[in-house]
Amino acid sequence: MLSDTEGGATISKAAIENATKVVDVDINGGWEIGQPVPYSSLAHVFGLIEATSKRLEITSILTSFLLLVIKRSKEGDRSSLLQSVYLCINKLCPDYQGLELGIGESLLIKAIAESTGRKMDAIKTDLKDVGDLGLVAKNSKNSQRTLFKPKSLTIPFVFSQLTEIAKTAGHSSQNKKISIITKLLAACSATTDEAKYIIRSLEGKLRIGLAERTLIVSLAHALVLRDQEKAGPAKSKESLALKLERGAQALKSVYSELPSYDHVIPVLLRVGIEGLKEKCKLTPGIPLKPMLAKPTKAIGEVLDRFEEKRFTCEYKYDGERAQVHRLEDGTIRVFSRNSEDMSAKYPDIYEQLPKAIQSNTTSFVLDSEAVAFDRTTMKLLPFQELSRRKRKDVKIEDIKVWVCLFGFDLLYLNGEPLLHKTLAERRTHLHQHFQEVPGEFMFAKSSDSETTEEIQAFLEESVKDGCEGLMVKMLETDASYYEPSRRSINWLKLKKDYLNGVGDSFDLVVVGGYYGKGKRTAVYGAFLLACYDSESETFQTICKIGTGFSEEALKTHTEALKGLEIDKCRSDVDAGGARPDIWFEPKMVWEVLAADLSLSPIYSAAKGTVDSRGISLRFPRFIRIRDDKNADDATGPEQIAEMYERQSLANKGPKKGAAEDDFW
Ligand code: AMP
Questions:
Q1: pTM of this prediction?
Q2: 316 touches ligand 1 (CB under 6 Å)
Q3: Which of 32, 196, 389, 619 has CA 20 to 30 A from 504's CA?
Q4: Tell me: the pLDDT tens digits for 93-110?
Q5: How far is ligand 1, taken at its centre, from the CA of residue 26, in Å?
Q6: Which residue(s) pair with 573 in the sheet?
């Protein structure tokens, strides 16, 4: 290990070795400076990435490719790099703009049939055998004879067509989509993997094992290498490795404040990594990924962690995260935890909030929880009430369940980001620039209590008032800065369920179903659940859940899951030894509680982390559907492993939480 005294980075030997590793990623002699990047080059790079599972190797491959894209772009061209980056993570724009890929299988099969002249049934049979529609499309091209050579695909063309498909809606949109896909497929070369990756992109998942954080590291490395080439050879491998590491840290930090490549990449190309931090800051209108909390099992653990530090306990409200932005021009936008624009769901917030903003406030980013609220009794209502609301086109006159916004943090105020201020300072700003309007906008109830008894009493009070428990937060020093997109140990959640059972609930994806028995043959009687590993982009099975459902609930779940049935286990689901009667597209997320965790030879969750076996949930209980979460927001194997270890240690004695984070 090498230590960087200026930047605080620590570099491993492997990273130093990797610093000067250049991978030849060109095929067919590459492309000329100023020419559009051929899509076949990107498909080739995807193939190289898919063939390895080593993170450093993936980083080298992608860095080499992105560096070529930069070096072969004309002066002032930003879109070549921007579009390459988006295609690598299978996105078309920042999340908050809401344009997504994810075309249904049957439509894709139709398009493959039309473009290759094959029968749909034959394609379906191949799909059953191979399990990957991308590969089926590629193989279908191999067997197709073409009379003339179509024009080669380029990144700008593929990107524009994918965008067109994602934007196409309304009347006859299916036909329009099929026609664009058919043309794209017809232009794919049979000797490359173009068709395979275009189809996978359209499906909504590339499945090459490239996590977004690896892309960010590669992008930073490519820029550092570009600037190093301009400046002349580096002093040594070690000094270059340090620059690469610092560059990656800098870009990660900037991107967590301003998660928009549309904004970051043009600046990156213009000023390089060094000047980026100055120019790219949290900006109202662009949602940042919220800070999250770590679960704790007992109040003793809270005291362990915060011993001799100042901390605060806040009510953990049971609603929906709302990140509210006000731009300098007065526009207000509300974003969900997943950066979705929720403005159409909450017209009541628009009506209520202005009354809570003091006259000394121009622009802000407020972190808060929108909670269903009974205006007659002035009491909190459970999350289920809120989930009854429509997600779109809500009209103020139709609202039956009103929300009250509970503000707990202020991230930006009057033109200045506050992320690097202490929570105590941020909270003072919040109280000085907003005012309570009972039942409409209130400050999260807090208590800066210090003893176990005080925390216990406040926890019980929060539960009595209809909350989920407490959030315990560091108040002072840099440990209390706001950490976007992190599940941080500086925020701990203490839920009421900690009083018994495992403690925190799990958000799990339904990947399979088991037919019911006896009276229940018309419905599924049990379900196979999985967690999601964002590192390998796979769903890992964790338990079968079948108790605690009413007949009515089973009927509702069966109906909701009907549309997600698929013939085969999807290739990104690691089933382990589980064999359900039917497989589902991993889409639906359920919140589940369990009595405890145990090692299992059947399930694959967190396999290889604490043991060669996987971890499973014992006596899982269904709590509710989480339609505010996507499948890739499900609980990760690292959290499950941590809970398992915590549980084993709890039997031996107390343990302090280990540092770990979510996105990074
Ligand atoms: P969980 O979803 O269990 O990880 O809990 C974290 C969620 O609790 C956040 O995303 C918020 O939506 C919600 N929450 C409720 N009250 C608070 C609070 N006082 N501070 C932070 N988050 C809160």
A1: 0.79
A2: yes
A3: 389
A4: 999 998 999 899 999 999
A5: 47
A6: 539
